[in-house]
C-alpha cells in the first residue's frame, strides 16, 4: 500500500498532504476536482483515496459512487474529509465505500496514523 490520490479543491491542503505523505514514503498524486480524479484512475490505481466531500462539479459523494460502480474501490481504501460534519453525508459516504471520515481542520498526525494503519492492512 503506497499509492495515494488526494482529491481536494484547496491547493494548500493538497500540497501539505502531498509533502507529508511523500516524506512517509508514499507515492502521491493530486486532483483538484472529481472529474480529474476519474480521469486519473483510468491509468493509475491508488491504494488509498483521500477525498474532500465538497468539490466543484462532481462532489465527493458522487465521485465515491462513480469509483464504486466502476470497481475502482475494490482493493482501495477511502478517507473522506469534510468541514461539514453532517451525519447524513458521512453515513452516505460510508454506504458507498468510505472507510474513514476525517473532519476539517484535521490533525495531520491523526491522518498519518490512519493512513499508516490502512497501509499495514493492505
UniProtKB/TrEMBL annotation:
Keyword rRNA processing: no
CDD domains assigned: REC
Alphabetically ordered keywords of this record: Phosphoprotein
Residue numbers of 4-aspartylphosphate PTMs: 52
A Gene Ontology BP annotation from the UniProt entry: phosphorelay signal transduction system
Stretches assigned to the Response regulatory domain: 3-119
InterPro entries recorded: Bact_response_regulator (IPR050595), CheY-like_superfamily (IPR011006), Sig_transdc_resp-reg_receiver (IPR001789)
PANTHER family per the UniProt record, alphabetical: RESPONSE REGULATORY DOMAIN-CONTAINING PROTEIN, STRESS RESPONSE REGULATOR PROTEIN 1
Protein name in UniProt: Response regulator
Organism: Marinococcus halophilus
Amino acid at each position: 500500500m503506497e499509492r495515494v490520490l488526494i482529491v481536494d479543491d484547496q491547493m494548500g491542503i493538497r500540497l501539505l498532504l502531498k509533502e507529508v505523505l511523500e516524506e512517509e514514503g508514499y507515492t502521491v498524486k493530486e486532483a483538484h476536482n472529481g472529474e480529474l480524479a476519474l480521469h486519473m484512475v483510468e491509468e493509475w490505481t491508488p491504494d488509498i483515496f483521500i477525498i474532500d466531500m465538497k468539490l466543484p462539479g462532481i462532489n465527493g459523494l458522487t465521485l465515491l459512487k462513480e469509483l464504486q460502480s466502476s470497481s475502482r474501490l475494490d482493493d482501495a481504501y477511502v478517507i473522506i474529509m469534510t468541514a461539514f460534519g453532517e451525519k447524513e453525508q458521512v453515513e452516505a459516504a460510508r454506504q458507498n465505500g468510505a472507510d474513514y471520515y476525517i473532519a476539517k481542520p484535521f490533525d495531520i498526525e491523526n491522518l498519518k496514523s490512519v493512513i499508516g494503519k490502512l497501509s499495514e492492512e493492505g
